[in-house]
Design brief:
Rossmann fold, 479 residues, nine-stranded mixed β-sheet, Cytidine Deaminase, domain 2, elongated, 24% strand, 19 strands, alpha/beta
C-alpha cells in the first residue's frame, strides 16, 4: 500500500502554472496536469509531463475565494492518461494566500477525484494549491480512500525548491553545524529528502558519507560491486575484513549510516543500473548523484533524471599520466543537469565512441575486439583508480554544489555553474553556464515509468533474455 506520494516539476512548468493561476485580477484559476509516475514498495512519485490550463472564460464561477469550472475538459485527458500510463493532478490558486484547503476545495476535490479514481483506479492522483509567493501544498488520492498529504512538491531549476517546508522526522544530534551555516530551513529540507547515489566506490562513498552527516533523511545506494583489497585506499569506511568477506559496497554504506546514528535511512541495492528493478528504485528518489566512470551508466542516469524530473549531479575525476612516470593532468568536474535542458552528451562530456565500445563490451565482445583492431575506437580505456585526496576534493565540490542549488549562497547566478570543476595540476577552477535552448530529451520530461522503460527497448530485451544480458541488436544510438 502506498504510504507517501511526492510531486516534481521543472521551473519552466512551474512558471506556466504561476502565470495562468495568477492573472493579476485577484481571482482563483485552475489548471490540470498529466503526470508520469513510478510506484515502488510504499512510495510513489509523480512528475509533470503535460499541462492543460483551464480558460478563465470557461469557468462558471471565478471569485477570490471560490472557483467552479466545467470538468468536460478532463474527459479527453483521462483518456490520454489511460493510454499513456499517466496520473492526473489538479492545480488551483489561493490569491489571498490561504495555506490550507477550504471547504469548497474539499467538495470540489471529492467530486472530481471520485470520477478520476474510478476511471484510473489503483494509482495516485493529486490536488495542489499554489500561493502568490509560489509556495505549494497538496494532497494525493488513490481509489476512494481518504486523501493523504503530499510528502513534498519539488521544482527543478537553477535552484531546487521544495515545498512544503517540513521534515519527515525531527532534527537529530549533529545537525547543529548545518543549521548554523545554512539555517534550520536547509536542515529540515535535507531531512525531508530521498536521494539516490549510483556508485558507492571512490567518490560515491564520500558523497554518501557527507549526505549522512548532513542529515539527509533517506538514501538509495546502488552498486553491484564488492569491496576488494585493491580498492581499500579509496572507499571510505571499508576495511580489510570487508574485502576478505567480499561485502558489497552498498552494505558498507548502510553499515556506516547505522554507525553514525544521525537517523539517515539507507536502502542498499547491490544491483547494476542495467537492471530494470534498479532503475525503478532510483526513479522514486527526489534527486540523483552519479558517481560512476562508465559512459553507459551516465547516459542511463541522464535519462532517468529526465523521465522522472530529478536534479542530477554527475561527478567525474581524471588523472592523466605521461609515458615517463609523470603526471600531465589532475582534476575533476561536477555537472548539474536539469530535466529538459542540456545533457552530458550534448555538453560533450560523453564520448560517443567510448559509449559504443562499452556497449559492445557488454553485448558482443568479439565485435569489440574487431573494431579495436580496425582502429575505430581510439582512446578506449578501462576504469582507472584515483587517489583519495582528489576524490574528496570533487565529492566535496559536488555536495557544495547541491547545497548551493538547495539553499542559495552564491553571490553570482547559479545558471553560470552548470559545469563546475578544477584542474589542480594547472592551479585552476572553472565553470560553464547552461547552454540556451531546450535539450534533446525535452519531450520526455516527466514521462515516468513507461514501456519500454526509459524509452529504451534494450531493457525489454534484458527482461526477455534468460542470460540476463541485453541483446546486441539494439543500437547505442538509442541511448
Amino acid at each position: 500500500m502506498t504510504s507517501t506520494v511526492s510531486l516534481w516539476m521543472t521551473e519552466p512548468q512551474a512558471e506556466v502554472l504561476r502565470k495562468h493561476l495568477f492573472p493579476d485580477d485577484g481571482k482563483e484559476a485552475a489548471a490540470v496536469a498529466l503526470c508520469g509516475r513510478v510506484v515502488n514498495d510504499a512510495h510513489a512519485k509523480l512528475s509533470i509531463h503535460h499541462i492543460e490550463c483551464i480558460p478563465y472564460e470557461e469557468c462558471l464561477v471565478r471569485k477570490p475565494d471560490r472557483l467552479v469550472w466545467p470538468t468536460d475538459r478532463v474527459i479527453p485527458l483521462l483518456g490520454r492518461a489511460e493510454r499513456e500510463g499517466l496520473s492526473l493532478v489538479k492545480f488551483h490558486s489561493h490569491p489571498g494566500g490561504t495555506g490550507e484547503f477550504s471547504r469548497a476545495d474539499d467538495q470540489a476535490d471529492s467530486d472530481l477525484f471520485d470520477c478520476v479514481t474510478a476511471w484510473l483506479p489503483g494509482v495516485p492522483h493529486a490536488s495542489v494549491v499554489m500561493l502568490p509567493d509560489r509556495c505549494m501544498f497538496g494532497r494525493a488520492f488513490i481509489d476512494q480512500a481518504s486523501a493523504m498529504k503530499l510528502r513534498i512538491i519539488g521544482v527543478v531549476g537553477d535552484r531546487i525548491h521544495v515545498y512544503p517546508l517540513f521534515a519527515s522526522r525531527s532534527l537529530g544530534a549533529g545537525q547543529e553545524a548545518t543549521q548554523q551555516v545554512f539555517g534550520e530551513r536547509t536542515s529540515r529540507l535535507l531531512a525531508a529528502l530521498r536521494i539516490a547515489v549510483v556508485g558507492a566506490s571512490g567518490t560515491g562513498s564520500l558523497i554518501i558519507e557527507q549526505l549522512i552527516r548532513s542529515g539527509v533523511g533517506e538514501l538509495i545506494a546502488v552498486d553491484d560491486d564488492v569491496v576488494l583489497e585493491r580498492n581499500l585506499n579509496r572507499i571510505v569506511n571499508a576495511t580489510a575484513d570487508d574485502a576478505k568477506a567480499r561485502r558489497t559496497k552498498v552494505e558498507v554504506a548502510a553499515r556506516t549510516a547505522v554507525m553514525v546514528g544521525m537517523g539517515t535511512k539507507i536502502t542498499p541495492l547491490p544491483m547494476s543500473l542495467l537492471d530494470p528493478d534498479a532503475v525503478r528504485q532510483v526513479a522514486v528518489a527526489d534527486m540523483l548523484f552519479g558517481c560512476v566512470d562508465t559512459t553507459l551508466a551516465r547516459t542511463i542516469m541522464n535519462r532517468i533524471a529526465t523521465f522522472h524530473t530529478q536534479p542530477y549531479f554527475d561527478l567525474g575525476v581524471r588523472i592523466d599520466a605521461d609515458e615517463m612516470g609523470g603526471i600531465e593532468y589532475v582534476g575533476g568536474v561536477v555537472h548539474y543537469l536539469q530535466p529538459g535542458l542540456s545533457t552530458l552528451q550534448s555538453r560533450g562530456a560523453i564520448d560517443g565512441e567510448r559509449l559504443r565500445a562499452e556497449w559492445l563490451a557488454l553485448t558482443d565482445p568479439a565485435s569489440l575486439e574487431r573494431l579495436r583492431g580496425e582502429g575505430y575506437l581510439r582512446g578506449f580505456v578501462n576504469q582507472r583508480p584515483v587517489v583519495m585526496p582528489l576524490n574528496m576534493h570533487i565529492a566535496g565540490l559536488a555536495v557544495l554544489e547541491f547545497l548551493a542549488r538547495l539553499h542559495g549562497f552564491r553571490i553570482v547566478a547559479d545558471s553560470e555553474f552548470a559545469v563546475h570543476g578544477t584542474a589542480l595540476s594547472h592551479g585552476l577552477m572553472f565553470n560553464q553556464s547552461e547552454p540556451e535552448g531546450i535539450g534533446p530529451f525535452a519531450s520526455d520530461v516527466g514521462r515516468g515509468q513507461c514501456t519500454p522503460l526509459l524509452g529504451l527497448p534494450v531493457f525489454e530485451a534484458w527482461l526477455g533474455n534468460d542470460s540476463r544480458k541485453p541483446l546486441v541488436n539494439y543500437r547505442v544510438a538509442q541511448l
